[in-house]
Amino acid sequence: MKDLISQTIHFVQQQLENAESGHDWWHVVRVHALARQFAIELNANLIVVELAALLHDIADSKFHNGNEETGPALAAQFLEIQHLDSATIQQVVYIIRHMSFKHSFSFNDTPSLEFQVVQDADRLDAIGAIGIARAFSYGGFKQRPFFDPEIAPQHYTSTSQYSNSKAPTINHFYEKLLLLKDLMNTGPAKKLAEKRHDYMVNFLRQFDAEWNGLC
Ligand code: ADP
Ligand code: NI
Description:
Layout: H1 2-15, H2 25-42, H3 46-55, H4 70-81, H5 86-98, H6 113-124, H7 128-141, H8 159-164, H9 169-175, H10 187-211
Helix pairs in contact: 1-3, 2-3, 2-6, 3-5, 3-6, 4-5, 6-10, 7-9, 7-10
Nickel (II) ion (NI) binds next to helix 2.
């Protein structure tokens, strides 16, 4: 299994060679480490968790013309070449196909522990100091304004509404990032999310105060 993990690491590093810095190899390294830690603490299937964490962003639809199938298909193909058994492949591919925030609007299944762990690890990397850095990196990559007081944050209720938004980066905090703390699945993730969440709230307060010349 150690061999499979190192092959996977090698494959993912190659796939993410030119990725935007919020969705690059280092994002995967952080998610993998957190997911591994939670899996050990909660006694989840380590191989499923590690593979899903490593492969979850290999072809994000945001960077592949909205194509939702490229990532899961590529992951399945890679794991088949590694001769992994098909039940494990199915579990891994199911996680990476359904775990993203944009899919949460229509996701009604009961998630496995492994699914919950990987989703929590990915969501933790979207909040806190690193979450702030990633949001502005993505906003810059998309050439978005970072703030426009005339564009109010929206409450999205569907994947397409959410995915088609071109709102300023500060809006993304209200539209997604501040919601994540209460969406964590597992105990250890909820604990880490508190501090990261408070850090973002303080950042937004300071941002607002500076924008209004108050400090
Ligand atoms: P998921 O992959 O769970 O569907 P997203 O693709 O919405 O989540 O976002 C992943 C990360 O990309 C976010 O946590 C954030 O850092 C960045 N990001 C996505 N959309 C935006 C946006 N509109 N503005 C700023 N950052 C964004
Ligand atoms: Ni991710």
